[in-house]
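Ticket opened by: R.M.
Priority: normal
Category: complex prediction / small molecule

The reporter submitted a protein together with zinc ion and asked that the result be attached to this ticket for the collaborator who will pick it up next week. Submitted input follows.
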Amino acid sequence: MNHPQTFPAPSSNSFPCNECSAGMMHLRHITYFTWLGDELIMVPNFPAWVCDMCGKREFDERAISWLTMLLNPNAGKPTRRPKRTPRPGPAKRNLPRPPLD
Ligand SMILES: [Zn+2]
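Result attached by the on-call engineer:
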């Protein structure tokens, strides 16, 4: 197993849920949604811990930071420039002339 594009795998298999303390958190691969600026990013097969009792979701910290690193390279970010059309101003009359010596 040495795929270049696999998510970092969380270490343990399951742990008790700290929300309902009755269920167990199991590793599932879900589709993770996040906003990147004004763009909705969809990440399929994202590792998340899901409680089998209350359904609480917890994302793996390493996977999150890994994803954040992937999504936030400053390069490739679309730069939006305000359209600024340089237009010649109205013809200026009555310009104060510098005094001539
Ligand atoms: Zn729970």
